[in-house]
Design a protein that fits this description.
Layout (H helix, E strand, L loop, with lengths): L3 H5 L26 H9 L3 E6 L3 E6 L8 H15 L13 E6 L3 E5 L13 H4 L10 E8 L4 E13 L3 H15 L4 E10 L9 E12 L1 E7 L5 E9 L14 H10 L2 E3 L2 E3 H5 L1 E5 L2
Length: 285
């Protein structure tokens, strides 16, 4: 669980958050790695669990075992042999790659920007995640909201963490998160009205409509190699605005994860999401 002190960790970059307080809720409902991924990390030789002030319990490659290291190259080679081999005496597991998509039961109002699509907040992962990992500092995107009597602008913050092997994996992980964000995103037109002249007789009525979208605010996708080793992943979470619980009724990732990630297109040497992610399960919602 996290509170306003969590956001304070990024205070040096928060001047852009000139938020309208009537639209902002700062109650956090947690954003941390699923228990299934924690269990897999604990069993993997190249993965470690750590406590983060912002993310809670999180996972990462052990030092000296991440992408680009000799240990990582050896793991990939073993996994390749594992997938292609028909021998019965292999030391490593034979169940192929496995990936886990995790979401939160908490949703937020993304405003006019929305969570998904080319202009949605999660698309901004392309700006903060690079060849081997993601920046720790947040990125901001302006969104429009409506109150009962006006519309206003608010900057949404996107935070990310991740580690993976190169640009192609980065693309497939981001597209997977975007695909989750686009699943059953709930959007509606919100109309506002106001009377000019302080409500005096003769004042004109003005109005407007803003299309606001709601979706889970936290999405994580992790991949595990066929030998059980950690294969990387990305976690992304949005600043919390007008929080609501009970989002699992719209985004049941447990039942939908396989179809969502399996349909993600490939990139470069990765032929498809189905091939890259392997067996897919959902967690958290």
């Amino acid at each position: 669980m996290h509170h306003l002190t969590t956001i304070a960790l990024f205070a040096s970059l928060s001047n852009a958050l000139a938020v309208n307080k009537e639209a902002t809720t700062t109650i956090s409902h947690g954003r941390q790695t699923s228990q299934e991924s924690l269990d897999r990390c604990e069993a993997a030789a190249n993965c470690e669990i750590y406590d983060d002030d912002f993310w809670g319990k999180a996972i990462r490659f052990k030092e000296g075992m991440g992408p680009g290291t000799e240990a990582h190259k050896l793991m990939k080679a073993r996994s390749a042999v594992q997938r292609d081999s028909t021998e019965e005496d292999l030391v490593y597991k034979r169940d192929g790659a496995h990936s886990i998509a995790t979401t939160s039961d908490t949703s937020i109002n993304f405003g006019s920007t929305g969570a998904s699509g080319t202009y949605g907040l999660f698309h901004k992962l392309y700006d903060v995640c690079h060849e081997g990992g993601c920046e720790s500092n947040p990125i901001y995107l302006s969104s429009t909201y409506a109150s009962d009597t006006s519309e206003y602008q608010q900057d949404l913050a996107l935070y990310a963490r991740g580690s993976y092997d190169g640009w192609d994996q980065r693309t497939v992980f981001i597209e997977a998160i975007k695909a989750v964000a686009g699943t059953n995103e709930q959007c509606e037109d919100k109309t506002w009205y106001a009377v000019t002249g302080g409500g005096q007789v003769g004042g004109a009525v003005i109005d407007g409509t803003v299309r606001e979208c709601r979706q889970t605010y936290y999405i994580q996708v992790d991949r595990w190699e066929s030998d059980g080793g950690y294969g990387g992943g990305i976690s992304a979470t949005a600043q919390e605005v007008q929080n609501e619980n009970g989002w699992c009724q719209f985004l049941n990732i447990v039942s939908q994860a396989a179809s969502i990630l399996g349909a993600v297109p490939g990139s470069g040497y990765i032929s498809s999401g189905a091939d890259f992610f392997g067996a897919i399960t959902g967690s958290g919602c």
